[in-house]
Amino acid sequence: MAEPKLLLKNILFIDIETVSLEAEFSLLPERLQALWEKKAAKLKNEDELSPAEMFFARAAIYAEFGKVLCIGVGGFFDNQKGEQIFKVKTLRADSEKELLLMFKNTLENHTAKQKLTLCAHNGKEFDYPYLCRRMLINGIKLPEVLDISSKKPWEVFHLDTLEFWKFGDYKNFTSLDLLAAIFDIPSSKNNIDGSEVNKTYYLEKDEDKIAEYCREDVVVLAQLYLKLNGLEIIKSENIRRA
Questions:
Q1: Which of 51, 123, 127, 215 is 20 to 30 A removed from 175 (C-alpha atoms)?
Q2: What is each CA distance from 126 to 6, 134, 164, 234, in whole angstroms?
């Protein structure tokens, strides 16, 4: 007998925004500075950036040299009229550890319990491992849904819209923004894009702009998931932003 379709209410849609550990390379501990210089020497550097310049431009994508700034979370619910509602918000805190503990609490108290499934775009390559690594660095025990070390593949409840779109083709990366465009889903890239998060945080000091961008990425992600499963996107009036 075929497996039943995954219930939307059991899926938590997530997106993370990350920044470099420090605003400047010189602020890193000397031990990490030396290790970054070794790593930077192996990275593609067409613009011939110095290790310090490359740190500001690219360190955020590496969990060893970056940190989680905010986490967008969203899920589907039915209102009293039986209409499908999508609720979405951005988690923020004064420290990364506090933020990660907040996110862990969100996972562990989700109504789906053991059926909770995470969904992210490029989540298997970025969001999920990044969150796990930063939790461990901060001394946080991994929540069940993220702790995959001893699980069989079918016991890992992680969805990835990029993986859906690849259909087994692993040669190319397709951005969330491109998929939103081809499926005619309104874009989240009205103010900034991922490459500008470090600058927006450290130079412009505008965390609100990043939080809004992160939240809207979750909306696009959920709409894309619906499209990839042959479902109608949710109406804008049924999206609840916190």
A1: 51
A2: 23, 12, 15, 26
Residues 97/128, Cβ–Cβ less than 8 Å: no
CB 73 within 8 A of CB 87: no
* Six token digits for residue 237: 């009036």
**Domains defined along the chain, listed by start:** 8-21+65-241 (3.30.420.10)
**pLDDT per position as a tens digit, 189-232:** 667 888 899 999 999 999 999 999 999 999 999 999 999 999 99
Query: How far, in Å, CA of 124 to CA of 108, rounded?
Result: 20
Helix, strand, or coil here: 231? Answer: coil
Task: Report how far apart, in Å, the C-alpha atoms of 27 and of each of 31, 56, 61, 104, 238 are.
Answer: 11, 11, 18, 29, 45
CA–CA gap between residue 93 and residue 69 (Å, rounded)? 8
Question: What confidence category does residue 3 fall into, taking pLDDT thresholds of 50, 70 and 90?
Answer: very low
